Amino acid sequence: MQRAYVLEPGAYLRKTGETLTLFREGRPSGEIPLHGLHHLTLIGYASLSGAVLDALIRGRVETVLLSPTGRFRARLMVDEHKHVERRRAQYLRLSDPGRILAAAKALVRGKLLNAARFLALRGMQHDNRDLIQAAARIRGLAGSLDALTSLELVRGAEGHAANLYFQAFPLLLRNPRFTFNGRTRRPPLDPVNALLSFVYTLLTQEVLTQIKVVGLDPYLGALHAVDYGRPSLACDLVEEWRSFLGDRLVLTLINRQALTPDDFILRQRTVTEAVDEADLKAKRPVEMKPQTCRALLQSYEKWMTTPIKWPETSENTDHRGLIRRQVKKFDAYLSSKTEEYDPFLWSRVF
Question: What is the value of pTM for the model shown?
């Protein structure tokens, strides 16, 4: 499956034969072959000609638009999946408070156990008792989920575990040029948070893609409440991947010094609403330089296509395939083929 990313601010895509030609300031600056193209991500304020839009629709190319800071803006939807019964089963099952609570517990359990394993592995690797103790506390919260009687309590446990995790997160940084003083979003206030937010957005889009392929409604989930415009199911199913895929990638790039603080532009400003790319660029507190964003996306694609063998079946797959497998598992749960949702657990792979 061929994927392409357009990062250039003010870029314009025009169809030339069976190729998308990228123009910047009136001059061609790159080409994207349409043959084999399945996924196109536009980051920033890019423009498309009518012929390009028609080619993307006819080719059923999934097209995602992200803001310059990596936040999701829109997705080109060709049509809805024709498997109505799957969505009907989803609506029925996620209308049952008991089913919602059970699914939320499973999702949070997967997230917490994976986060605890990450901290424990790094704690043993670096002989750091603080990381090991943080892992034990998070594992304890995961063990307490069965006794919780409401969705609010489950969300509270997840929030408490996230606080414990990010309190320990600075101990995972092995590059003294980077610091982390807590998780900040909307906007991220430092390079580490900017990297985490950007990679989390990419992972959420990976999950959303698989949800659409299966035929479920991405806007109805269990853990995250329904909110206008929010793909709650994608937000649910991305949770179990944050530490295993997102944090590991970001920390690898930082700790191996593939990135430096010089790869970012820092400003003493607070992001507000922006009217265009230039306005937003002048207001965001931290910004990846264009070459940094390109390098990050190359590393991300390499990471997502990393070969891996699934131990239960000895099947050869990759990280993207693991996500696809879990979305299918959730679909099986919604269609009553399984009684419980079985989250992805890092311990089953390594």
Answer: 0.82
